[in-house]
Amino acid sequence: MSFIEAALRANLEVSDLLHVKGLSASQHQSFDIGAGGDLSSGIDLEAEQIFMKHLLPFGEIISEESGVIQSSNTSARIVLDPIDGSDNLLSHLPYFGTSIAYFEHDKCTKAIITNLANGDVFIKDANGLRQGKIGKNTFSLVTCNAFSKVGIFERSYCSVRVHDKLQSASIKYRSPGAFALSLAYAHDVSFVLYEGVMRTYDVEAGLFMCEDLYTLYEDDIFLVSKDKEIFDKIKSLFISN
């Protein structure tokens, strides 16, 4: 079985856990602060166990919840967010998923980001960026949406220097609350923007999927857009040349 196949099986199992079995009270419960700095919920930890079962034979896992999980296979590194947007999930807001980046020799070569709310699956490997559905075997190449009207500004409520500038420039955006998942949709929306401390679990898979787009990733700013005019306009608001 390939890494991609194993990752798809893990995502299907997590999806079934959420949508077939449903969440129990213990899965809503908060536990200790995870390696990523956020409180881990029961569903975060249970999803992590599912991914460990399927992915650990392929390499060491660096998970948002438990940090480094060692593997007998030392040839690869897997960066994992078992539930991206877990606050949304626990609040019954339909925008949450999973994020997996696979590294060989310190280079990301495969990534999978899944929207567990609607079943969208994004895969990127040597065959390009493709989109399908959980539990289905049909995937189509992702192309850019020429008709997008809004962008995504994740964690806009924490913005120190960008929110007011976007408002002044009349730039429309949404802030759905799952950064890795938002990066997977970067080819559809006008832009994806993040201001703040970025963790490897949040950005690795999405960064790999956005390689063909205009990208700024420095200090506390991550900006990506398929449109150079929009990219340059937003970049100019807070970065002087």
Oligomer: single chain
Please state the structural category: alpha+beta
CATH superfamily of the largest domain: Fructose-1,6-Bisphosphatase, subunit A, domain 1
Globular, elongated, flat, extended or rod-shaped: what is the shape? globular
Number of helices: 8
The number of distinct β-strands equals 15
The span between the termini is 49 Å
Task: Give the CATH class of the largest domain.
Answer: Alpha Beta
Descriptive report:
With 241 residues, the chain is α+β, with helices and mostly antiparallel strands. The protein has two domains: 139 residues, Fructose-1,6-Bisphosphatase, subunit A, domain 1 (Fructose-1,6-Bisphosphatase, Chain A, domain 1, 2-Layer Sandwich); 88 residues, D-Maltodextrin-Binding Protein, domain 2, CATH 3.40.190. The chain is built from eight helices and 15 strands. The strands form three sheets. It has an eight-stranded mixed sheet with strand order 4-3-5-6-7-8-9-10, sandwiched between helices. A five-stranded mixed sheet has the order 12-11-13-15-14. Helix 5 links the parallel strand 11 and strand 12. Helix 1 packs antiparallel against helix 3. The longest helix has 19 residues. It starts with a helix and ends with a helix.
